[in-house]
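Q: Can someone sanity-check these two? First one:
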Amino acid sequence: MTNFVDATHLDGDDGRYTANLHPDWEVWGPNGGYLSAIALRAAGKVAPTGHRPAAYSGQYLSSPVSEAVIVEAEVVKPGRSAALTNIRLTQNARTVVQAQVWTTSREAGPQRLDIEPPKVPAPGGLRPFESYMAAEPHPFWSHMEGRPVQFFADDEVGPQYAAAECWYRIKDFQPTADEFLNAGRMLLLIDTLPWPTFHRAHTERPVSFIAPSLDLSVWFHQPIGDADWLLAHSYAPVANTGLIHGGARIWSEDMRLLASGGSQLLVVDAR
């Protein structure tokens, strides 16, 4: 099993890199959040010294296979306190992901939080997913350790609202001094969770369709630091005319709001 650090590793320099997509990070193909984590890590390679990620916006333009991709990163708006980088992932001359990343070195400013932190047990007081269910069919989930606040089996009526709270950590990963690598974990969660959150909110689980992400937008509210367990409050409140919208907020164990974001999902016939 390829760990997160190695799976997002970039070879190269001066804004042009290669990355190897690993098959054990697939859901319906290489996971979108995984691709975005590679793009974010590329932004960190060219960001001004002392910068951390401030915002990520990415579009998924084609579905790659688990092979090598070319990753290009260009700072298009340099700045001492804020800079913007364009990133492009290509495979076989097709653009897979195009993304924009704002970075910043700013630290001083007002502090305010009008969102009440979730009142949930610590991860150590909750049961892991594997105590409720058999192994997930997609290899991506083998990298994740999850402890749901509330669990609904496939034969149970799900929650009235498409919302969920669950603690997650990536196995075999230790937080590092690289804020771009650390923050990539939040892209994984915010991209991936809207679909299962929508899925489990239905009495009859959808079987004839899936809904891959068209895009992903994430705003980083403060440095993630050495946070290991991450609490994801995910939601998918809107579905209509072939589209599903969802997102998530990510909290640390000491209840700092680290990031929030969401995506638009396109309904696709799974047959």
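And here is the second, same format, sequence then tokens:
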Amino acid sequence: MQILLFEYITGGGLAEESIPQSLACEGGLMLQALLNDLTAVGGNRLTVMRDARLQPPQARTLNGGLERIQVGAGDDLDAVWKSAIRKVDAVWPIAPETGGVLDQLCHDIQAEGRSLLNSPAEAVALTAAKLRTLWHLKQCGVDIVPTVGLADFRDQFRGPWVVKPDDGAGCGYTRIIRTRQALKHFQEIPSADNFIIQPYLEGTAMSLSLLCKQGDALLLSCNRQHIVILDDSISLAGCTVNVSPQNRTVFSGLAGAIARAIPELFGYVGVDLVLVNGRPKVLEVNPRLTTSYAVLSRALNQNVAALVLDLLPPGSRLPDRTRSGGRSIEVVLAEVHES
């Protein structure tokens, strides 16, 4: 099978502008891990899109090498992308939901009739909007962090508060607001309609790595997120993947509830949450690879990309469980994200 990998940040999505080092680091880690996993599967030919300013990624022991499609300033990214899709059997996009980027990529892949190794566009469109996703999950009985649109906030919960873009990826432009005066100022900015507000909850920042198909979910790992707060700006410094929670059954139950609420989710899915007094409260659902994937296969001692590929055939089902054993591995990002 010929598989195209397109990591948006390092694959030419920012060819006309400078690439933030922190985003290039994070995207590069996920892409390299995916390349390593797919190389280990064997029997596949891999193509990767790459920003012409960056060094090529490595693909160890890959028979026939790794085909690269370079994207430079002045190139028609849309034309290059769609041409690349038509030459392969399957596509694995890694992109932010911001601005509908991931949604459009998934639409393009589905329109060409290629196998999408990611959640389909309809699942991406829902989960790209944090407010709509959380309301939907709440209606399905999932415990969430209380959330409203910033423009509609009328003291529904006490401060301090966290504000973030409704379609943001990661911790980008996520801030703590501590006073009503600062909150009023923030509500008056032109882009306020695209922000949400939540209470700032004291707890443990965590994420889940899931494998999903047709309303079922397998919990692959629980991960602890390393959050840095500097001048009330919230950033992700890294994460510890495959930690051992006190009650894994609680997180497995949460994974199943999310998959039932959004049955279109497919393949690898990340869930961000905060653990408050032993109760997980969902912050967002990411229908794509997340930072935790960078070391997940090594942490589990199991090839996660292979698990996703195994879900492609009609009638295939999730495995009952992952292999026993494994370990915790820490991912340290080269640079804390700046807001």
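A (reply): Looked at the second one. The longest strand covers residues 216-230. The chain has nine helices and 15 strands.
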